[in-house]
Specification:
Length: about 290
């Protein structure tokens, strides 16, 4: 029987918005299911002596004094592999499960991802070169901006080892997410929806409104980060009341009240497990921004 159209929902009474949400839910379900199956498959295959050999080869370092070149080689490998597959998303989706099973370390995956960001710019360059003659200059200019933007990210966040902040931040956030699983969903909701929508709405109201609202918030965030760093490294420089955040309500410096509220409302979210009896884990006394990074 011949098809009546060119897509799945031809002839249905659903509008485009409903069809879009159905396809979005289906694609996310397929993506998550694929990642879970990949991780389980890798866990069943990469174990014992095989995992040790692969881990040793991938995370190997050049002998002294050329050990610092290992990361730059990983950047080149990430760029080349992304150029081959023509998609940084495919390369990232292949690396993340290997990190999940412990085959690739965070320190090795970080330069691979940076190289992948550079390699994905080749797609834009090739597309720009195929542009019409009257649009060639503008297309190449935009593609070079994409390339230099990613190169600037490497110069800023990798060249100086002290500036490789995404590595410790990722580890700390991973530890928090392992203890409070719902933090990952909250992070995605705020980072990709609420905060961009808030910035977009304030920008539509005008630059003055955006500066008046965003400036104090950024200043407050910078002040909290500075106090947290001083609490860790030089607490004697702070007044006694600021050496800990115990003077604040519990819900402002701990995720435990939020965890009880969310897990009581949403039964699908597992409640945070208590640490073993032979270990002592103290709840960090800090505002929520720091707890999400600790």
């Amino acid at each position: 029987m011949p098809l009546l159209g060119h897509h799945l929902f031809v002839g249905s009474s659903l509008n485009d918005l409903a069809i879009g949400f159905i396809l979005l839910a289906g694609s996310l379900l397929t993506l998550c299911s694929g990642l879970v199956l990949i991780v389980r498959l890798l866990n069943s295959i990469l174990h014992g002596q095989i995992a040790q050999v692969i881990r040793k080869v991938i995370n190997a370092e050049f002998p002294f004094p050329f050990g610092w070149l290992s990361g730059y080689l990983a950047i080149v490998v990430g760029a080349v592999m992304t150029f081959v597959v023509q998609s940084s998303s495919v390369f990232t989706a292949a690396i993340v499960p290997l990190m999940g099973v412990g085959v690739i370390s965070m320190e090795r995956a970080y330069p691979l991802f940076l190289g992948s960001n550079v390699g994905t710019t080749t797609t834009a360059l090739l597309a720009a070169l195929a542009s019409p003659a009257d649009m060639l200059f503008s297309a190449v200019q935009v593609s070079l901006i994409h390339l230099f933007f990613n190169m600037a990210g490497i110069l800023l966040w990798y060249i100086v080892p002290a500036f490789r902040l995404p590595i410790p931040l990722a580890k700390k956030f991973g530890n928090v997410t392992a203890h409070y699983r719902w933090v990952a969903a909250v992070y995605l909701l705020f980072s990709f929806f609420l905060i961009p929508l808030a910035v977009f709405g304030l920008s539509m109201a005008g630059g003055v409104v955006l500066a008046a609202v965003g400036g104090p918030l950024l200043g407050l965030l910078a002040l909290i980060i500075l106090i947290n760093l001083m609490q860790q490294h030089c607490p004697t420089w702070l007044p006694h009341c600021l050496r800990s955040w115990a003077f604040l309500p519990l819900w402002l410096h701990s995720l435990q009240p939020w965890d009880r509220a969310i897990t009581s409302c949403c039964k699908c979210c597992p409640q945070a497990q208590d640490p073993p009896a032979d270990t002592t884990v103290k709840e960090p006394l800090s505002p929520l921004p720091r707890l999400l990074l600790s």
